[in-house]
Amino acid sequence: MAEPIHPEFAPISLDELTRFEGAVAITAGPQGELNAPTRRLDRITQGIVTRFVSSEPHSKLKPGDCHIIAPPPGLSAESLVVCKVDSRPTPNDVRKAGARIAKAAGKKSLLLVPGAYVDPAEMAFGAVLRRYRFDRYKTDPTKETGELRVMTSAPEKADARYRDKRAAAEGVYLTRDLVNEPANVIGTVAFADRLRELTSIGLDVSILDETRMEELGMRALLGVGQGSESPSFLVTLEWKGGGDEAPLAVVGKGVVFDTGGISIKPAANMEEMTTDMGGAAVVAGLMKTLAMRRARANVVGVVGLVENMPDGRAQRPGDIVKSMKGDTIEVINTDAEGRLVLADALWYTQERFSPAGIIDLATLTGAIIIGLGHEAAGVFSNDDGFCKAFLDSAKTETEGAWRMPVGGGYEKLIKSGKADIKNTGGRPAGSITAAQFLLRFIGKETPWIHLDIAGVNNLKTDSDFAPKGATGWGVLTIDRLVRQRFESGADD
Ligand code: BES
Ligand code: MN
Ligand code: ZN
Known about the structure:
With 492 residues, the protein is α/β, with parallel strands linked by helices.
């Protein structure tokens, strides 16, 4: 698995600046303002920094844009990265600048020299998120990513501020790894094993196998996995950092591969369905983050792990299954499997934990990509206050999220002639009818948010904080939500 390379915060030293090999990165204000260490760096480089920041090309840069001077005169470094930042940048501007610098520096060892009003911990965090790579299957001996050092007048303070960010980076890396790994490497058994390993950081992990789920009546979930050679599991991860209050529950769809089943998908792009466990991966990453930063809250993660395969024993279109709740479901399309998995996972979570709120995450519908593209996840909720708190957190973390409706006339679209409900409502409002299906498995009193992350979980292009592939969308937003709504006496 890819381990984050965390920053070392060091005091300002001209000697180190001069001798550092790799990339040295500095920030400059909109008018080319430099701080004391960068002014000294300017002298060592015979004025190349001031020449650049007072030039036309610098005036044309937008905040966050970087310019590379290579090789820089007077330094041992291979390159000097100059990053333009606003005079009073927001935390997110700073995080983004760190990420842009990391992208510009590639795998080189990196020395950050943040300017005035630039939080070194925040900038380092952006760089760490962006330095993620998934290259373990490249057999060419590729260069390892180098160290990350950050020069600051108050290294201890920066180190303390980085503490929770370290936990967040670890969580995001875990989520991305789980999503990026192919299904022959992380199937249901290996996924459950990875989750079991999280006991070492203080999570209580329990795993229900098929026999136990059969006893509990989880035929909706089990029906999805019955065509696969890999066994289905329901895994719960508990973090008890609070008092005796009811927990927040976070539930994830963990389809390790989605062929569509008997309603098989076309060949084009089917390989992307290795990422159909993205919801479960966010749950795993979030729980890791909460445990590592010893969050003062009770949070339980639940994931349904299945593989959706076509087979002689696979579920058929037209089958009618009974959920743990007792509601019967007509399976119109075996490719609408995520909601079947979540139906039982959600009901089980409420029966066992009586949570104060539930958030589920799932790569649930292609329709959400048609609606919102890759910019925002679809947000569905039965509780305006809870939903607003979530959207505020997402905004602060700049993870795209957009609320969609449930209720009203949408319910009738999933009525079944033969059973209580059917698992698809046809093409119109495909993401909404999927959410509507889930809502049926939420108790009247339970505040609930459903996140359809099909468009944001995995990207074909680089994004601000990740190279192409898994993004880890959701870990930072839900971590923030936990901090702000479920932790007592926590600061930001
Ligand atoms: N896993 C897919 C949704 C998906 C599509 C995720 C693209 C990521 C990228 C889901 O199980 C699915 O197949 N949904 C169907 C539902 C339909 C049959 C009602 C879809 O969206 O086509
Ligand atoms: Mn499907
Ligand atoms: Zn799916």
